[in-house]
Amino acid sequence: MYDTDTLPSYEKGEEMAIVNVRIDDHYHALLRERAATEGQSLSEFIRDRLIAAVEPVRPPDDSDVFSPDSLTLVERQQLALLHRILARVIPEDSSQEDGNEEDQLKLARVLEDGFVGGYSTEFISLRPELTKSQCSFVMDVLDMFRIITFSLDDLDKTPEEIAEYGTYRLEFQGFDHNDLLEGRMASYVQYLTSEGRWTELSPQIQKADNGNSHSPMLGVYERMLAEYRRVRSTRPRGFDQKSYLLNAGELAQLAESAAHLDSL
Asked: What angle do CA 231, 205, 187 make, to 5 degrees?
C-alpha cells in the first residue's frame, strides 16, 4: 500500500531516509484516525512512534551534576552582575540558600575571571533536562495506571487471574529515588500531581512512600506500556468513558507483564 502522506521530506527538499511499511487497511485506517486525533499527519505520527521505539528512555550517559564547558562574555558579565547585586541586598544575618555577601562575591569573581572549573558551583542547583520523550513516557505511564485504576474499580471483585499475580502489580509504584533518571521522573510526577493532574493516583503515590519505589521501575513500566498499547490496538474505538476500561483478562495480561520482569 502506498501513501503519499508518508513522503513529506521530498516536498520540503529535505534529505531524509524513507522507510516503506506495508500494513493491513484496517490498521492503516486506525493509524490515520489516531494521527488526526493527535493533530499530526500520518507520516509525522508514524515517524514519532518509530523514533520512540528505538530511542532509549534512558540516555547512555545520565549525569545528575553538570555545568557548561564555556560561557560567552555576555553571559559571564550578566551572571556576575546578578551576583554582585545579590551581595548588596542579602541581609548580613541571612541563612538563606543564596548564602551571604562573601559567597555571592566569590561566585562573581569565578565568572569574571573565567574559572571554568568553578562553574559547577554556579549551576549546582540545576539538573539535566528531562527530555520531551522522557516526559511523554512518564505521562503515558500515569495515563495507563489511570485506566487500570478505573478498570479495577469497575469490577465487582478481583478476578482470580489478577489475584494470581497480585493486585499491587497494577498499582503505580512510583520511581526509584536512588536512580538519577528515575529520581527526576519522580520529581516530574510530583510536579504534575501538584498541578491537579492524575489526582486519582494520589492514594497509590502516598502508599508507595510518596512515589519512591525503592527499586528500579523503568523496565517494568516499559514492558507494561508495550503490552497496554498492544491491547488497546486490538480493540475498536469507543466514544463513551467505559469503552476505555480494560476487562479482567486484559488486566491480567498487564499484571503478567509486570510479574515477568520481576522474575528476570
From this structure: 95
